[in-house]
Design goal:
Elements lengths: L4 H4 L2 H33 L2 H37 L3 H36 L4 H16 L1 H16 L3 H25 L3 H26 L15 H54 L1 H19 L3 H34 L7 H14 L7 H12 L3 H27 L1 H27 L8 H7 L2
Length: 456
């Protein structure tokens, strides 16, 4: 029976079995992104780091479409595996890859054509413009490899091959770090070298994944008869992928607004600070993202197999694990914030102080922010994409962007930093009660006493 352990294995160990490889993969990916920025900040300069920070929302928005396709395809594949519909799995896999390929080609052409107007619209000038333009021109030229690698990696996790996906990401990460040193430090290629390193390392991961799905995969594989994608399949994939799309779009849009108002109130130093903070937070978010990626296929599979009690148990353990990890991270960040920022901004004490304050504010509710991620995973995996999508845009767009504008106008740069934990708290409250009501369980379903009892 395919993946029967998803229906029978103890949830506490099953969740770790699926989440830990995802955490390791995210950690390695995050480390090489941080190393990338350290290389640029230390060996190219603050303007180069600010340039990459300014164009980063563009990258996020490009990947929003990929997240829509990859997440929708992967989640549908996981549900179909739970239902033992293996022919449908082939159709979904082939259609997902065709759609992702067409989207990648479209974004490559559009990105190259629209890059200059977008940078002008964002009011990017001088050295910051030059570094951002050089970096994104190369990224757009090879973006197809990045998008396809991301899609295949998501599908691998959805069918229970989290360890395989992790190994691919480690391979790409190690390749990126080696190429960063070679191209940025030794050959002094600057921002262009960083972009070439990124595209090349992702291309290596894509080729390994492609080889697996052409020659090694048993149930999830290409089928020539499904190369022509029909409307119903496209709708099925994209509707389930909406939460990932809005989450990614929201992150990109809020970062654009954040960059603008930080520049308005704090200049290049503040923009460079949020670049450093964003890199660090991707590292500190590893536990909650790993759990989110780990629990989603478990919920989706058991949703397909109609095992609702296991879904509830998976949610309880997800909250337990992420809360414990979040408490430890909160203590560490509050005491070591300026030390962490100094890895990126070593020039002046003022820059380090700005970044340290921002990092402490940004991470204030880190012990419980995973509730947002877990609720999104739950609604998406149970085929309720609209509810999941609303949670995705609630924090980043509906709450955060207005708060940045209002609180920034009243309290300046400190108000901008405080807008972030305020939006966290409001969205957490909504996510928690939405998920609890949807599960139709008593109000004490996720009480601390219940979570403690689960570990006995």
């Amino acid at each position: 029976m395919y993946n029967n352990h998803l229906e029978s294995e103890k949830i506490s160990s099953l969740l770790l079995k699926y989440s830990i490889p995802s955490m390791v993969a995210i950690m390695v990916s995050t480390i090489y992104n941080i190393v990338d920025r350290i290389f640029i900040g230390r060996f190219v300069g603050e303007s180069a780091l600010a340039g990459l920070t300014v164009v980063y929302p563009i990258i996020i928005i490009v990947f929003a479409g990929t997240a829509l396709i990859a997440s929708g395809g992967a989640n549908n594949i996981s549900i179909s595996l739970g239902q033992r519909k293996f022919e449908e799995v082939k159709r979904l896999f082939t259609s997902t890859m065709v759609i992702a390929t067409l989207f990648g080609i479209f974004m490559s052409v559009l990105g190259i054509l629209m890059l200059k107007p977008v940078l002008v619209f964002l009011n990017v000038e001088g050295d910051v413009y030059r570094h951002g333009y050089d970096y994104m021109t190369i990224i757009f030229s090879g973006v197809l490899f990045q998008l396809l690698a991301f899609t295949l990696s998501s599908i691998a996790r959805s069918e229970g091959k989290a360890t395989f996906s992790m190994l691919i990401m480690i391979t790409s990460a190690v390749s990126n770090i080696i190429l960063d040193y070679l191209l940025i430090v030794l050959l002094e290629m600057g921002s262009k070298g960083a972009a070439i390193a990124t595209i090349s390392s992702q291309g290596i991961g894509f080729l390994v994944l492609l080889f697996h799905y052409i020659f090694k995969s048993e149930n999830v594989k290409f089928s020539m008869k499904y190369l022509k994608v029909n409307f119903e399949v496209t709708k099925k994939i994209t509707s389930i992928g909406l939460p990932a799309y809005f989450s990614t779009i929201g992150s990109g849009l809020s970062l654009i607004v954040l960059n603008y108002y930080l520049d308005l109130h704090g200049g290049v130093a503040a923009v460079a600070s949020i670049g450093a903070i964003a890199s660090l937070m991707t590292f500190f978010d590893i536990p909650k993202l790993g759990i989110q990626y780990g629990v989603q296929p478990i919920i989706a599979y058991n949703h397909g197999a109609k095992q609702n009690s296991r879904i509830e148990e998976a949610i309880k353990f997800s909250i337990l694990y992420t809360t414990l990890a979040g408490i430890a991270l909160f203590i560490f960040i509050q005491y070591k914030s300026e030390y962490l920022i100094s890895f990126f901004l070593g020039s002046t004490h003022e820059n380090i102080a700005i970044g340290g304050f921002g990092l402490r504010a940004y991470s204030f509710f880190i012990p419980i922010t995973a509730i947002n991620n877990i609720s999104m995973a739950y609604f998406q995996a149970t085929e309720q994409p609209i509810k999941s999508a609303f949670i995705a845009i609630l924090r980043q767009i509906i709450i955060l962007i207005p708060l940045i504008v209002i609180m920034g106008a009243i309290w300046g740069i400190k108000g901008i930093w405080y807008a972030i934990p305020t939006s966290d708290l409001l969205s957490i409250v909504y996510s928690y009660f939405s998920m609890r009501i949807n599960l139709k369980v008593p109000s004490n379903i996720i009480k601390p006493i219940d979570i403690v009892q689960l570990t006995d």
